[in-house]
Amino acid sequence: MIFVEIIIESIETSYDFEINENETAKSVIKEIIKSVCLQERIHALDESDTEKFILCDKTQRKILSPSNTVKSNGVMSGHTLVLI
To answer: What is the DSSP code string of the chain?
Structure first.
Protein backbone atom coordinates (compact mmCIF):
# COMPACT_ATOMS: atom_id res chain seq x y z
CA MET A 1 0.00 0.00 0.00
CA ILE A 2 1.16 3.52 -0.78
CA PHE A 3 -0.06 6.92 0.32
CA VAL A 4 -0.84 9.57 -2.29
CA GLU A 5 -2.68 12.85 -2.58
CA ILE A 6 -5.56 12.75 -5.05
CA ILE A 7 -6.74 16.03 -6.56
CA ILE A 8 -10.25 15.96 -8.02
CA GLU A 9 -10.32 18.75 -10.60
CA SER A 10 -14.09 18.75 -11.14
CA ILE A 11 -14.89 19.57 -7.50
CA GLU A 12 -11.66 21.41 -6.70
CA THR A 13 -10.86 19.19 -3.73
CA SER A 14 -8.00 16.94 -2.69
CA TYR A 15 -7.89 13.82 -0.55
CA ASP A 16 -5.22 11.66 1.01
CA PHE A 17 -5.62 8.07 -0.19
CA GLU A 18 -4.00 4.77 0.62
CA ILE A 19 -3.97 2.72 -2.58
CA ASN A 20 -2.74 -0.72 -3.52
CA GLU A 21 0.22 -0.34 -5.86
CA ASN A 22 -0.58 -3.74 -7.41
CA GLU A 23 -4.02 -2.62 -8.66
CA THR A 24 -4.44 -1.26 -12.17
CA ALA A 25 -4.89 2.48 -12.59
CA LYS A 26 -8.37 1.71 -13.94
CA SER A 27 -9.30 -0.07 -10.69
CA VAL A 28 -7.88 2.78 -8.62
CA ILE A 29 -9.96 5.30 -10.60
CA LYS A 30 -13.11 3.32 -9.79
CA GLU A 31 -12.12 3.14 -6.12
CA ILE A 32 -11.46 6.89 -5.96
CA ILE A 33 -14.76 7.76 -7.62
CA LYS A 34 -16.70 5.45 -5.31
CA SER A 35 -15.04 6.89 -2.19
CA VAL A 36 -15.45 10.52 -3.27
CA CYS A 37 -19.11 10.00 -4.18
CA LEU A 38 -19.76 8.61 -0.70
CA GLN A 39 -17.75 11.33 1.04
CA GLU A 40 -19.31 14.22 -0.89
CA ARG A 41 -22.78 12.63 -1.06
CA ILE A 42 -22.73 12.74 -4.84
CA HIS A 43 -24.83 10.34 -6.91
CA ALA A 44 -22.62 7.38 -7.78
CA LEU A 45 -21.61 7.07 -11.42
CA ASP A 46 -22.41 4.12 -13.64
CA GLU A 47 -19.61 1.73 -14.45
CA SER A 48 -19.41 3.04 -18.02
CA ASP A 49 -19.00 6.62 -16.76
CA THR A 50 -15.76 5.75 -14.97
CA GLU A 51 -14.19 4.98 -18.36
CA LYS A 52 -14.28 8.71 -19.13
CA PHE A 53 -11.81 9.60 -16.37
CA ILE A 54 -8.04 9.61 -16.55
CA LEU A 55 -5.52 9.60 -13.74
CA CYS A 56 -2.40 11.73 -14.05
CA ASP A 57 0.69 11.71 -11.89
CA LYS A 58 1.47 15.35 -11.20
CA THR A 59 4.80 14.39 -9.62
CA GLN A 60 5.99 12.56 -12.75
CA ARG A 61 4.04 14.83 -15.12
CA LYS A 62 2.44 11.94 -17.00
CA ILE A 63 -0.88 10.22 -17.69
CA LEU A 64 -1.13 6.78 -16.09
CA SER A 65 -1.83 3.85 -18.36
CA PRO A 66 -5.19 2.45 -17.20
CA SER A 67 -4.23 -1.17 -17.87
CA ASN A 68 -0.92 -1.01 -15.98
CA THR A 69 -0.56 -1.33 -12.23
CA VAL A 70 0.04 1.76 -10.16
CA LYS A 71 3.53 0.44 -9.40
CA SER A 72 4.42 -0.17 -13.05
CA ASN A 73 3.19 3.35 -13.80
CA GLY A 74 5.94 4.55 -11.44
CA VAL A 75 3.68 5.90 -8.69
CA MET A 76 5.21 5.91 -5.20
CA SER A 77 4.17 7.13 -1.75
CA GLY A 78 4.10 10.89 -1.59
CA HIS A 79 3.13 11.40 -5.24
CA THR A 80 0.25 13.68 -6.18
CA LEU A 81 -2.29 12.24 -8.59
CA VAL A 82 -4.95 14.22 -10.46
CA LEU A 83 -8.28 12.71 -11.52
CA ILE A 84 -9.63 14.39 -14.65
So the answer is: -EEEEEEEGGGTEEEEEEE-TTSBHHHHHHHHHHHHHHHHTPPPPPGGGGGG--EEETTTTEEPPTTSBTTTTT--TT-EEEE-
State the fold for domain 2-83: Ubiquitin-like (UB roll) (3.10.20)
pLDDT tens sequence across 36-45: 888 888 776 6
- Specify whether the backbone of 45 is left (phi greater than 0), alpha (psi in -120 to 50) or beta: beta
Q: d(Cα 35, Cα 65) in Å, to the nearest integer?
A: 21
